[in-house]
Design brief:
225 residues, mainly alpha, 9 helices
């Protein structure tokens, strides 16, 4: 896999894939909001904060992402272009999509929005992680903490973080529902399917550099959210 931040290798594909993934991620968040059937844990938190502050959910998403990124400093994590872009692009796209997408609709329409949102979120995760330009700030917080505390299980740390933000978001008025459960059950298998599919092939090295890379792309490290 190409090193994070190394844009000398396949820059057009990786940049296109990164920003396509971030835009799709923002659209999927907006679709989940419009479904009214529940959000993923971090977005329950974002929505709860938005309702308490009067800010848009996109603005809150950007603000929380920036604050989480500051927590990378004591963890000695280094953000990539994808990390910084994640903070800004997703929040802007969420607000733009919500402004264009009307609320309401019957239950079948809302279920359809939820299903499309979850699948799109999985594809978006595969796209931007596969570009290997840096994980999102929330996932970097998790992996950075585990790197500094090798004895801790990454599954346990992720669960603890997401349960905490889910509970806080619910207390703040965020929407928890069947969509929250559906997302939790589906996002892992979807990410497992899409991340290898969109992974940029490893950069050739040694005597074979410059020749076509044979075989399947390796799965990048990373996520999530």
């Amino acid at each position: 896999m190409a090193p994070i931040g190394n844009l000398r290798y396949r820059p057009v594909r990786r940049l296109t894939q990164l920003y396509a993934g971030l835009v799709l991620y923002g659209v999927s968040m907006a679709l989940m909001v419009r479904s009214g059937l529940g959000l993923d844990p971090w977005d329950v938190f974002h929505q709860g904060l938005a309702r308490q502050t009067g800010l848009t959910i996109g603005t809150v998403t950007i603000a929380v992402g920036a604050l989480v990124l500051l927590l990378w400093i004591p963890l000695r994590q280094r953000p990539g272009l994808g990390t910084v872009s994640n903070v800004v692009v997703i929040g802007l796209v969420v607000d733009a999509t919500l402004a264009l997408l009307p609320a309401g609709g019957g239950l079948p329409v809302r279920i359809g929005l939820l299903v499309v949102a979850i699948v799109a979120n999985g594809a978006a995760t595969g796209l931007y992680l596969g570009a290997a330009l840096g994980p999102g700030p929330r996932d970097g917080l998790m992996t950075g903490y585990v790197a500094r505390r090798p004895g801790r299980s990454i599954r346990l740390v992720r669960t603890a973080i997401e349960v905490t933000v889910l509970a806080l978001g619910w207390l703040l008025g965020g929407t928890v529902g069947v969509g929250t459960v559906a997302y939790a059950l589906a996002i892992g298998p979807l990410a497992q399917r899409f991340i290898p599919l969109f992974a940029v092939p490893p950069e050739p090295t040694g005597p074979t550099a410059g020749q076509p890379v044979l075989g399947r792309a390796t799965r990048p490290a990373g996520e999530a959210a």
